[in-house]
Amino acid sequence: MFAYELHQVNQAELLREAAAQRLVREARRARRTAGHVAEGRVTHLRDLRHLFAHAA
User: Fold this and answer.
1) Which of 2, 34, 53, 56 has the most CB atoms within 10 Å of its CB?
2) Cα–Cα dist 37/34, whole Å
3) pTM of the model
4) How far apart are CA 27 and CA 54, in angstroms?
5) Cα-based distances in Å from 3 to 9, 12, 13, 16, 29
6) Could you tell me the pLDDT band of residue 10, with boundaries at 50, 70 and 90?
7) Distance between CA 38 and CA 27 in Å, rounded?
8) CA 40 to CA 32: how far, in whole Å?
């Protein structure tokens, strides 16, 4: 009976760990897509410098 109880405890721990890992992956995915969908890509001035000629 003791081995079965250890197995149950180990299984519950593995299930909690897997759920935590899924939550982390979901949060990373949400954070990554939230910036692109809500606001779009931010363009910085240094990205546009090649479009303009230097003043004389």
Assistant:
1) 34
2) 5
3) 0.54
4) 44
5) 10, 14, 15, 20, 39
6) very high
7) 16
8) 12
